[in-house]
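4.2 Preliminary Data

To establish feasibility before requesting continued support, the project team ran the inverse folding procedure on a target of 116 residues. The structure was first converted into the token representation described in Section 3, and no sequence information of any kind was made available to the design step. The complete token record follows.
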């Protein structure tokens, strides 16, 4: 009979200790969450629609060149510095010189590439 009471007491002590420890940890997590500023989650990138083998196409601007690059290229062409504009397009878009010249020549007013 004494063994039964000792076993019941041990279970009561272990259960109470576990319950107390869980409550203490929950309070600490709640206090830490209140102190820390929330970290925004990184934006999810859309999955490529089709993927063949190990090839993943590079993401491109939907309307052609980025607007800041278009404005800078148009300014350089207006100032008569077309070679510098071609060099800038070639470096930023990572194309050869012939294609960069076509892009600069075909750059429309809305930033879309007219001819590639």
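Position-by-position output of the design step:
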């Amino acid at each position: 009979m004494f063994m039964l009471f000792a076993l019941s007491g041990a279970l009561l002590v272990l259960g109470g200790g576990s319950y107390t420890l869980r409550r203490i940890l929950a309070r600490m997590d709640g206090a830490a969450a209140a102190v820390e500023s929330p970290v925004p989650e990184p934006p999810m990138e859309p999955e490529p629609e089709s993927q063949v083998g190990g090839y993943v196409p590079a993401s491109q601007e939907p309307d052609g060149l980025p607007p800041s690059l278009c404005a800078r290229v148009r300014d350089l062409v207006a100032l008569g510095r077309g070679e510098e504009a071609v060099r800038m397009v070639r470096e930023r878009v990572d194309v050869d010189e012939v294609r960069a010249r076509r892009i600069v020549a075909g750059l429309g007013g809305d930033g879309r590439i007219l001819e590639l």
